[in-house]
Amino acid sequence: MFLVTLDNRATALDAKTGKELWATKTGEINPGEAATAAPFVAKGHVFVGISGGELRRRGPIAALDKNSDKIDYVAYSTGPDKDVRIDQEPPEAAFQPHVWRA
């Protein structure tokens, strides 16, 4: 079981005992970052989004290894391609005229 707290702490709990398995900090509350949404689990990662755009934060999302407190990578909702993790060209098919016809 995974949860996040408003002060950006991601935590894994044993579902049977409630014992904390690991916890890690994913953001800084003082400059205006806050974890306000439930974590999302997929492909061995726990994804934790951070809000704070109204306070000029960049909207990071951290991908944590679900079996440890290790942050595998962080991506942002704004900024240069390398920070947003756009690291490949879109498929050419996306730009064909038939894709955009209603």
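[next item in queue]
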Amino acid sequence: METKGVKVSIIIPVYNVAPYIGECLQSVMQQSYKGDVECILVDDCGLDESIVIAEQMIKEYNENEGRRTKDDNVRGRIRFRILHHERNRGNGFERFEDAWRNKFGDYFGKASVDREGEFGRDATDV
């Protein structure tokens, strides 16, 4: 993955959030920031289909991005990565520690994915 130009990293811990991960990623994908963004999903060994859903959405996003022309460049490109933990690390900093260490952006934000989060079109707008 090319990291040149990435100024912003969004870190999303993922653990048993299948009902919400789609809306969260949609919000990231629709952000209006014109620069390139890195989005790191941290797979914390959940037991549901969260990562499968995320992988499918990312695949579709990347396929659509490949069809963009210079004229379509309304917003910056989002570069997705998934870091897989070998075991569940629980809540708190441990859940996104690896992403923090491996981020490329100068600035970062953490998106929470849970039933209490309300994701609108611009919930993760940079």
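[queue empty]
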